[in-house]
Write a structure and sequence with these properties.
Layout lengths: L3 H11 L1 E7 L5 H14 L3 E8 L5 H10 L4 E6 L1 H11 L5 E6 L5 H6 L5 H10 L1 E10 L2 E3 L2 E5 H8 L2 H7 L3 H10 L5 E7 L2 E7 L1 E5 L3 E2 L2 E2 L11 E5 L5 H14 L11 E3 L2 E5 L4 E4 L2 E5 L2 E14 L7
Parallel strand pairs: 1-2, 1-3, 3-4
Antiparallel strand pairs: 5-6, 5-18, 7-10, 7-16, 8-9, 8-15, 10-13, 11-12, 13-14, 15-18, 16-17
């Protein structure tokens, strides 16, 4: 496998890439052709261009692109699309290039990739290859987070049309509609020889630094060998709403040392009843579940000067 420096140089000089755009992401269908034209204008040779324009076609398109052995696999879509690409690219000698075309774009925010198409392509042409951690929920790698509780119901019920129209606000709108009949969970987290118990409507375990388009804390990132487990509020609906509002307003000022954050390398999560689990917005079984870290598992094209541990 090439070093990161060699891969960076090969991408900058050879510009050998493949493009996969999820046409079902918020902006993917509308911006696919524009993205392709801009990449060609920037000097990239596209070995393949794969629009994932049918349900269930994303993995097939990504596998086809990987089979062409590009130096850079450019993936356009939201966090679910990026997480799927990351899972398939783990431990390969191919870098992932990000075109943030989704609703919240948490992973792009975490690694500092700009959210506009023009600036994101600028990162692909002048950036540098770094490696970041992936989380692993059960046996499923992920980029951003694991959600247990209300979020799993929200991801299953948020209308696609609402996401296109309302963007990231589609999720809290759907959550409010579901909250009236949602029961709190009694959750137990076992990590580093200790047990932590929470009564909450929502528990997250994050690998990255952003959730719902907002910072979790000022010092969480995707390259620190840590997971961040935290409940959102207590067992009351009012507590969930209050804490959600607080996180939105103060995430950039909080640190991993503050309550209620639990920063660990691995954990076991169980609940008083089997609860659905979502991983980066996709269903992933139910509790109990082990969640860990696969360190430096994914190579990405990041902005120049990105810290690479």
């Amino acid at each position: 496998m090439r070093t990161k420096q060699q891969l960076t140089e090969d991408i900058r000089t050879g510009r050998r890439a493949a493009l996969v755009v999820n046409a079902h992401s918020r902006r993917g269908g509308r911006l696919h052709h524009d993205a392709r034209d801009r990449l060609l204008a920037a000097g990239f040779t596209l070995l393949g261009d794969f629009p994932a324009d049918r349900p269930g076609r994303l993995e097939e398109s990504l596998e086809a692109a990987i089979g062409l052995a590009p130096d850079l696999l450019i993936t356009g879509g939201g966090d679910g699309t990026i997480s799927t690409a990351a899972r398939l690219l783990a431990h390969r000698d191919i870098a992932l290039g990000l075109l943030p075309l989704g609703t919240t774009n948490n992973f792009a925010r975490t690694v500092g990739v700009p959210l506009t198409l023009e600036a994101a392509i600028g990162t692909l042409t002048g950036g540098t290859v770094v490696d970041v951690d992936l989380g692993v929920a059960g046996d499923m790698p992920f980029t951003n987070h694991v959600g247990v509780g209300l979020s799993a119901d929200v991801m299953s019920n948020a209308p696609r049309r609402l996401k296109r129209v309302a963007g990231r606000y589609a999720y809290p709108m759907t959550a409010l509609a579901l909250l009236a009949r949602h029961r709190p969970l009694h959750a137990r987290v076992r990590a580093a020889g200790r047990e932590h118990e929470f009564v909450t409507h929502q528990l997250y375990v994050a690998n990255g630094g952003f959730h719902a388009g907002r910072p979790i804390t000022a010092d969480a990132d995707a390259d620190d060998r840590l997971l961040v487990a935290y409940p959102v509020g207590d067992g009351t609906r009012r507590g969930l709403l209050r804490e959600t509002a607080r996180n939105t307003a103060t995430g950039h000022r909080r640190t991993l040392r503050d309550d209620p954050f639990l920063a660990v390398g691995e954990l076991w999560l169980e609940t008083d009843r089997p609860a659905r689990v979502e991983v980066d917005g996709e269903p992933c079984g139910q509790t109990p579940i082990r969640i860990g870290i696969d360190p430096n598992a994914l190579r990405i094209m990041a902005p120049p000067g990105t810290v690479d541990r």
